[in-house]
């Protein structure tokens, strides 16, 4: 078993063990990848305030997200094609999250279906929905999520059309991979991945295949989104989905104060300040940078979560200290999954927890619920001064 000390160790292994097209899919931003990069580099600009000679015993990172108890304020974000990073990847990730006590969110664009994950877990998970043109499919998938006992619906608002990721185009991303000479050569060096994949029946988008009418080329995320995602999604449709679902609703992809207010108006339970991991609108501000203005706009009316750029427990601590009630990791657990399957996801969670817990203690806090902005040094110009249009 390799020694894993940080998320970067898992990333290196993931790169070696998973097929290039899937590693690249995870490790991509759109166009120039500026937003993807700044999601992480903006975290580095915020520093922590050291405190000494305070009792650091009996620490706790336990808190709640949308009223659910969590072992730490870090949930697993919805990630498409997770079951291509490692066979049955969504089941493995959900099981690791469940054992650790943090929420797992299943993507609409997952390989394992809602039913597959429900069958292999015992606690409720969250389901992420993309709004499709086909309302019957949307209603049906909401019904399936209810039947599976999902405890929250995470509605993603920033991917009705797909941002262009150059690497996916070059690699011909598809699930399962098409057998071209290039992919076959790459797969020949990923024998462990291939053997596991041969041993599972879950190799395509099982939330969709067999459930959606007129399924076109579902193998390709790009053509599927172009054909099926509803580019006319608006707040009225969001209200319709909220009513249809009837349970806890999290709106993901909020990066603007006015949109945050609209999310409050529709009665969402939480918002996720997110730029989709820098995979959609390149040139958007980083999530951590947009967190404070959005908190100022709606922080007293709705739970505010964030994702984008979290690669360490310190990053999560900074987001919580700024006021986020919860954070999400995507790549940080996907690296673990691609590196070592379920054990790798568990290892990622352990690494993040330790970094969060120890850093919190160095800042003189014993309880994550007592962490506030006063443990941070935030540069004066952190949010930037932008001229309104
Ligand atoms: C899907 O969620 C993607 O970002 O590829």
Key descriptive features of the protein:
about 400 residues; alpha/beta; TIM Barrel; 8-stranded parallel sheet; two-stranded antiparallel ribbon; 16 helices; 12 strands; binds glyoxylic acid; Alpha-hydoxy_acid_DH_FMN; Lactate dehydrogenase; FMN_HAD; L-lactate dehydrogenase (NAD+) activity
SSE order and pairing:
Layout: H1 7-17, H2 20-26, H3 34-45, E1 47-48, E2 63-65, E3 68-70, E4 74-76, H4 82-85, H5 89-100, E5 105-106, H6 114-119, E6 126-129, H7 135-147, E7 152-156, H8 166-171, H9 181-187, H10 191-198, H11 221-228, H12 235-245, E8 249-254, H13 257-265, E9 270-273, H14 287-298, E10 303-307, H15 313-322, E11 326-329, H16 331-362, E12 376-377
Parallel strand pairs: 4-11, 5-6, 6-7, 7-8, 8-9, 9-10, 10-11
Antiparallel strand pairs: 1-12, 2-3
Helix pairs in contact: 1-16, 5-16, 13-14, 15-16
Bound molecules: glyoxylic acid.
Distance between the termini: 54 Å
How would you spell out the order of helices and strands?
HHHEEEEHHEHEHEHHHHHEHEHEHEHE
Low-confidence stretches: none
Write the CATH architecture name: Alpha-Beta Barrel
What helical percentage do the residues reach? 40-55%
Taking all Cα atoms into account, the compactness measure Rg is: 20 Å
Strand order of the largest sheet: 4-11-10-9-8-7-6-5
In CATH, the topology is named: TIM Barrel
The ligands found in this model are: glyoxylic acid
Just give the CATH class. Alpha Beta
Annotation field: number of helices = 16
Count of beta strands: 12
Shape: globular
